[in-house]
Write a structure and sequence with these properties.
Elements (H helix, E strand, L loop, with lengths): L5 H23 L3
Amino acid sequence: MPETAQQPSTYTLFETAIGWIGIAWSEAGLT
């Protein structure tokens, strides 16, 4: 895989973090 894959990797990590935050919010019932 090219080094350029590191760029989208960080972006995917950010998207995943946002997804987890959304799940945590739903779990806390702060929708």
